[in-house]
Amino acid sequence: MSYLDRDILGMYRNNDTGPGPALMGADTLLGDDVYNHSDEQLGDIKEIMLDMRSGQIAYAVLSFGGMLGMGEKLFAVPWERLSLDTINKRFVLDVDKDQLKNAPGFDKNNWPDMASDAWNQQLEDFYGNGTRYGTGAGARRMQQGGDLRGGASLQSGSGGSRSGSPSGSQSGTSMSGSRAGTGNLQSDQGSRSSLSDEDDLDKRS
After folding, report:
1. pTM score > 0.70 for this model?
2. Minimal CA–CA distance to 73: which of 98, 93, 99, 46?
């Protein structure tokens, strides 16, 4: 199933004026398939973990078991490592199947402390610098403006290019940072003010 199949509220019914794909309903993403750039199915999204302090998405919890023969093991993937493929209605994680067998995982009955330094270090070692939850580059990205939202990037299809390692840079439209439309208000007001001052001077002369 894709997020369209679970859209019981009709969020994505109107592609021109609706909220998607820049803003997506979390419940519609649960169960979405995850592929890599070799068009290999890796698994699906089981849960989305929210940072309750910042309001950002920290991790997507994925299950690769059915596809990779890894049992019921779960994996926390940093949200910025996922891309939304709006053509095929699925997510893309640019990691080879063989690499995923070494990814930090856990048993579904024994969840780790995902805010701990030890856990974050494991994920940073595997997925690369900048994926540490709540600190460092990841936290700085949450404060940066100009983009749509912290998290996954948008892709036009499953064939978009990235560098060949899990720590490679992403292609597509970034969704990290602050809310859309809030970054340029002051500069816009400032330019209007200066224009009006010039008009007053012209009238007086």
Report:
1. no
2. 46
